[in-house]
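Re: folding output
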Amino acid sequence: MSRIYDFLRRHPMWVDGFWALLLLGISALYLFAGQVVQGDTDLPSGLVDGLTFVPIALALSAAVALRRKLPEQMLLLATGAGVAQLVADVTVYPGDFALLVIIFTVASRGARWASRFALVGAVAAPSLSAVRWPTEGQDPSGAVFGTIFMTVTFVLAWVLGDSLRTRRAYYAELEERATRLEREREARAKVAVAAERARIARELHDVVAHNVSVMVVQADGAAYVLDSAPEQTRGALETISGTGRQALAEMRRLLGVLRTGQDPDGDAAAYVPQPGVEQLAELVEQVRSAGLTVDFRIEGSPRALPSGVELTAYRVVQEALTNSRKHGGDQVGAKVLLKYGERELTLLAEDDGSGEDRRLHEGGADGLGHGLIGMRERVDMVGGSLQAGPRPGGGFRISAVLPLPEAAEAAPAQRRRNR
């Protein structure tokens, strides 16, 4: 039974065609009865004229058959059949049930003008029928009641159709909203994935580029003095070992974030604390041990900073020193200035290198320039600004300004740190 129901739902024209044939058959039987007993006054005299009746019956049956496919056209066809019925004096017969069907159909799925036109027809048709074919011997109150009853029936058909239209529009809006929300969800997911990939790329670049660079420099130095200075070789190997452990610890932190899906400030960060401005001195010492001369100064009054600003400051200085060591040449020297202002933290990292500088070759397939891209992204995330470019007189300069909250806003962070 369910298969038959599903088939009929997929082929509504077949259902309408069946009802149209049934209505046409009933009309034919009614016409035949009128022809046989045409002397009987109980049957409408207009049914005796088959040449007039048949086109009207065919038109109304066609309106039922094609009502879903062509609702507006079938409304006009049914209206024409009704007018012809009035003019030709074809009295009301069972085939007029098609008028109720087409009014319901147009109200539920037709154009707005057609729906309003159908409502006018629903109100006017019973009154026109009562005037055109009055019942002999019926008292006026009975005629008025019958007309009102038929009018209510026709109007109710229009109301049901219009309610169905409203419900369909509501369901269509819900489906459209669900589709739109799904598209927005997918778009947000893509943006989140892209942002996460960029964040992971920045972290990996900062960890790998800096630590591996230190390890390579120390390994080259150890190989150079392996035979002549064993103590220096041992110190270089210790630096390589310590740097490698630090890199592994930060890599474990990143892998923990990826596995758990938690924020770096959460439990996944238990492997190693996020670096901040307090670790800049250690970073500078590490770089100095790798052979780079660094002048590190702090101006202003150090105070508690948001974790995002601290991490950004650390990574910017780390990348700047890594680039100085990689691109500045053999005798390069660097300067790092950390200046606390009332409303911003200023970072200045510059070197006097004279080697081939490829830092501005951004986004290359070999990874060149991704450090500057990562710095800009980090600074943008905290609402700051960054300038990077060649330094007058030779070398390279990186300047970043990171906005800071009011002192009152920073106080809770200071209390948490003191705990």
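--- second protein (sequence, then structure) ---
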Amino acid sequence: MTEVDGNISATALKALSVLDFLGEQKRAVSVNDVADGIGADRATAYRMLMTLVQAGYVLRDASQKNYRIGFKLLSLARNLVSDDERSRAILDCLRLISDETGETVHYTALDSDSAVLVFRAKGTQRVSVDFQIGDRSPLPCTSIGKVLLAYSDQRFVERIIAQGLTKVAPRTITDADEMRQELATVRAQGFAIDDLEFAEDMRCIAVPVFENGAQVPGGIAISGPSSRFDLTKLDQLRQIMTPRALELSRKLSG
């Protein structure tokens, strides 16, 4: 039996689940859509939506029937990617790697049980994988996710593994012991690859960025179509990414 924390508001969690659901939609959705999306009855979904509309976090369209995420969330998030010394150092590093490789380069950070893309430098390659800032990805089957897991607390790693290693592509690692060995390898070699593990036509490589000593809140990744990104290409990218990431780590760690 799961112990209930009396400090946690079930109502607030339900409202936040509405925001999560709306944030994943590319169009305005109805009350019924929201109810189905959060697993609640229509009355509960409507009450949560109207509360969030009143607070400014959700917008209701002219028909008064459909809802979408509001711009107020942008105001809340602005300091996450503010123009400070840390952000400039990360972006400078990404641009240097992009200039050297011609590829789009991402800085992705650990956020709860997933990885979220925070910064990117657009490359010149016409055939590429176009991830956007704010995109989230699972940890076990992506190169950046494996990097973040490899340098995380073991209890966190075991919790992620216990949630299940879902097969999403031809080479997704679904065995718990194999995943533990993969993370040990990533930590030993200092980089991770995604070899058709997240999508059947994509490969990726990622390296850690250290802050405050041994902490790895984020890392640098490059993704590309498997038609261009064979294992030789990934190793060439690694040789460029690794020294740049180490230089950035020194700057961020003071």
